[in-house]
Amino acid sequence: MPTLAGQPAQFISIELFQFREGNRKDLQMTPLAANLTNADMNDLAAYFSAQKPRPPSHKTDPANAAIAPKLAEQFNCVQCHGKALLGQQHIPRLAGQQFEYMRMQLRGFKAQTRADLDGNMTSAAQALSEKDIDALVDYIAGLGALYDVLLLIFDVVFTRCDAQREVTMAGVTSSDCQPPGIKVTCTSPECIGGAFVRAVTNAHKRGLRT
Ligand code: HEC
C-alpha cells in the first residue's frame, strides 16, 4: 500500500479519478473511489498532500545506494520525479515510498498492466531490467534516510575541506542539499559547516529528518 502523505495533490486527484473511471483497477481502491465526486477527490488530495511524510524505515543496501543514483539519472527518473524524487504536479513523490508497492508498480508499467495517464511512465519502464528495478526501488524506498548517510559524509568532508576547497560528492546535483547528492563549494572551513547546517535544516523542513 502506498504512502500518500506529501504526495502532490494533483497526482492524488488524478489517481482517484483513474480508479473511479475504471482505468486503474484495484480490489480495495476501485469500490472506494466509485462514489467520489470530483470535489471529494480534490478535498482528499489536499488533505493527504498536506500531511508530513514520515522518515522511511527502509534500509537501503549500500551496494544499491552506490549504483542507483546513476541509474536514476540514466533512466531519467530524476528528470520527471525531481532531483530529490519528491514529485511535482501530476508526477508522484517516490522518495520514501513503500518498497513492495513501488516494485509492483514498476513491474506493472513495464508489463503495461498499470494504468498510466499519459504513457510516459510506461515508456520509462521499458528499458528497466529486473535488476535495475530492484536496485532503484531499494534505493528510493530508503530516501530520506539518506540524510543520515550525508551526516557521515559531511564528517569526512570536514576533515578534507581545508586541502580541497571544493568538494563534489558522488551524484551531486543540487546546491540546496537535496538527494541524490550535494555539491558543496567551500571558500572557508566555516562555509562547509554552514552547508552542513543547511542540509540538516532543509531535511527537517521537508520532514525527511526528525
Ligand atoms: C517522462 C516522465 C517520467 C519518467 C522519465 C519517469 N517517470 Fe515515473 N511516473 C511518471 C508519471 C507521470 C507517473 C504517474 C503515472 C500515472 O499514474 O498516471 C509516474 C509514476 C511512477 C511510479 C508509481 C508511483 C505511485 O505512487 O503510484 C513509480 C514507482 C515511478 N514512476 C518510478 C519511476 C522510476 C524509478 C523512473 C526511472 C526509471 C521513472 N519513474 C521515470 C513520470 C515519469
Quick recap:
By secondary structure, the chain is mostly helical.
Account of the 3D structure:
This protein is mainly α and 210 residues long. The protein folds into three domains: 9-45, no CATH class; 62-143, Cytochrome Bc1 Complex, Chain D, domain 2 (Orthogonal Bundle); 145-205, no CATH class. Helices cover 56% and strands 3% of the residues. The chain is built from ten helices and two strands, in the order H-H-H-H-H-H-H-H-H-E-E-H. The protein has helices at residues 9-21, 29-33, 38-50, 62-74, 77-81, 99-111, 120-126, 130-141, 146-164, 189-205, and strands at 166-168, 183-185. The chain has a two-stranded antiparallel ribbon with strand order 1-2. Helix 4 crosses helix 8 and helix 6 packs antiparallel against helix 8 (130-141). The protein starts with 8 loop residues before the first helix and ends in a 5-residue tail after the last helix. 32% of the residues are buried. Mean pLDDT is 77; it is low at 145-149 and 155-194. Bound molecules: heme C.
Kindly name the structural category: mainly alpha
Strand content: under 5%
Small-molecule binders: heme C
- What top-tier CATH class of the largest domain fits best? Mainly Alpha
Tell me the count of domains. 3
Task: Jot down its keywords.
single chain, about 210 residues, mainly alpha, Cytochrome Bc1 Complex, Chain D, domain 2, 3 domains, two-stranded antiparallel ribbon, globular
Write the topology of this structure.
Elements: H1 9-21, H2 29-33, H3 38-50, H4 62-74, H5 77-81, H6 99-111, H7 120-126, H8 130-141, H9 146-164, E1 166-168, E2 183-185, H10 189-205
Helix pairs in contact: 1-3, 4-8, 6-7, 6-8, 9-10
Residues 2, 15, 75-77, 79-81, 90-92, 94, 102, 105-106, 116-118, 120-121, 124, 128, 136 line the site of heme C.
